[in-house]
Amino acid sequence: MTTASTIYKICSSSEWKQAVEVGAYEGSVKDAEDGFIHFSAAHQAVETAAKHFAGQDDLVLLEISAATLGPALKWEPSRGGDLFPHLYGALQISQVDSVSDLLLGADGHKFPALKD
């Protein structure tokens, strides 16, 4: 199976601020319902934003090296059978390589350059 070395999480700025305060991100309400934290590879992130965060502002994009997450990270089929990264556990703040504001433009979210 081919997987990306860099993965991404979109979350609200307020969720991220709370995670920084406690040292870990436990995921969104949807993540908690599903039992894992949803991530996207670079080629999936724009569609994820359009599908699950359309029209939302005040978002951040977390960039994480998949290797730092160890065996708690599973690549599982989801949208269209594509393999998506799912984290079964909390994301430690120290595991996040960078955080970018995900600005909302007239035609959707404006992403920085994404790494595979």
pLDDT average, as an integer?
95
Shape category: globular
CATH superfamily annotation: Protein of unknown function DUF952
Structural class: alpha+beta
> What is the level 1 CATH name?
Alpha Beta
Per the CATH scheme, the topology name is ADP-ribosylation fold
Question: What's the CATH architecture name?
Answer: Alpha-Beta Barrel
What is the CA-CA span between the terminal residues? 15 Å
Q: What order do the helices and strands follow?
A: EHEHEEHEEEEEE
Largest sheet, if any? 5 strands, antiparallel
**Counted beta strands:** 10
Helix percent reads 10-25%
Number of domains: 1
How large is the share of residues in beta strands?
Answer: 35-45%
Strand order of the largest sheet: 4-1-5-9-10
The stretches of 5 or more residues where confidence is low (pLDDT under 50) are: none
Radius of gyration: 13 Å
Please count the helical segments.
3
